[in-house]
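INFO worker-7 received task bundle
INFO bundle size: 2
INFO processing item 0
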Amino acid sequence: MHLRSVIELLAMSSLAVKGASAACTPIPSSSTATPTPTPSVTPDCGSDQSIALCCMNLAPWSTNSGIWGGACGYYPADPNERVGARCITRAPGTNCFGSLLATCCAGFIPGQCSLGTRCT
């Protein structure tokens, strides 16, 4: 589009706004808004796994042993233990938003890795 065409379009839209009457109804906006993140389902934490967490990852320790063992320094007795990574604590009965996963764990190791241990 040429510069003159853009200027003409701006002038026309300016005239249209100036000449608009109070009876005009606004044009409905299209549905381009970002959807609200759906909270993940909050499990009820029992006495064995009483620490409520929201984690970025939840998997058996053996699937990421190089990081969870090496960089994070956590070595469980059972390599199939479910571990939560990059976790934050949450109040019981609250939800996790975005891509965070709600889980219950028996332990929590704060710090760089923020690991939940023995998670459901």
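INFO item 0 finished
INFO processing item 1
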Amino acid sequence: MADYNCVFCRISEGLDSSTVLEVENDDFVIFQDIKPASQHHYLAVTKKHYASLKDLNKSHDSLVSRMETALKDLLASKGVSVDDSLFGFHLPPFITVKHLHMHAISPRTQMTFLSKLIFRPSVWFKTVDEARFYLSQKE
């Protein structure tokens, strides 16, 4: 169920005419981040409102995999190598929009110093592999 006070819910429902959806399917949409950390920075945002990765469990592993695959396919379609890319999620309280979204950032080597801190795999940012491990521990 969409929360229309949530900007990502409005975008995923197609209610924000200023956001160009690069990919859309039944589960999520992909669009450019408005504050890119590198030349290519996209978000895969679920259509169903989940506040964060913490709202998911191991049954959502396939959703995370589909989001990652779609982001990689989008980057490849734009001629961007995924080898120098970063894919992952922020964890609360380090989330600016409380709606589940996976980041795809490329090239990773061209991120600014501040972006490297914000998106450094850590307690506040989990790579997709770390997210899958986290979900595998949850019922």
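INFO item 1 finished
INFO post-check item 1: The two ends are 22 Å apart (CA to CA).
INFO post-check item 1: The helical segments are 7-12, 61-77, 113-118, 128-136.
INFO worker-7 idle
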